Amino acid sequence: MVLFDTHTHINDERFDADRSEVIENMQRAGVQLAVVVGDAAAQPESAFALADAYPFLYAAAGVHPHDAIQYNDAIQAQIETWMAHPKAVALGEIGLDYHYDFSPREAQREVFERQLDLALELDMPVQLHIREAHGEAMELMRRRHASGTLPRGIMHCFSGSWELAK
Questions:
Q1: H-assigned helices in the chain
Q2: How far, in Å, CA of 53 to CA of 166, rounded?
Q3: What's the rounded Cα separation, in Å, for the pair 127 and 158?
Q4: Which residues touch 152 (CB under 8 Å, ≥6 apart)?
Q5: Which of 19, 78, 125, 133 has the greatest CB tally within 10 Å of its CB?
Q6: What spatial distance separates the first Cα and last Cα of the chain, rounded to whole Å?
Q7: What is the mean pLDDT of residues 32-46?
Q8: pLDDT bracket for residue 117 (50, 70, 90)
Q9: Coil, strand or helix: which one is 79?
Q10: Are 120 and 151 contacting, i.e. CB atoms less than 8 angstroms apart?
Q11: Residue 31 class from Cβ within 10 Å (0-12 exposed, 13-18 middle, 19+ buried)?
Q12: Cβ–Cβ under 8 Å, residues 19 and 25
């Protein structure tokens, strides 16, 4: 069996003291592939630095819904640059998070749509973060699916029901 961790934050500062040990433990435990996620509004370079340093690590970058208020054309251009990296495998994590509302909901919706468009343009899968915004997110994704504008991807964070997941 191949263990593939589709979403790690081992680039987070909380791992500064023991990051190499954590990475070694991942490999000892049988993790053969892992994606390190970088928030383009915070610390995405670290995801790509780790991907460059370890053959089994890959990277994703996008703007988390918490940081949507910071999204701008320069950040989008930087995401485009990172998506050209040979070990870039996904745009994310992106989505809607209405639990804390660190960014206004309108900004989250706009940035989510922009990043979905970018993923489609770049032919990259997305890592979705949908928290306490399921109705709105599903409506948006159904609309995009019907129009052929929903990129492929995975659901990383989902706090909805089993029925909604189906």
A1: 19-28, 44-53, 73-83, 105-122, 134-147, 162-165
A2: 38
A3: 11
A4: 125, 126
A5: 133
A6: 25
A7: 87
A8: very high
A9: helix
A10: yes
A11: middle
A12: no
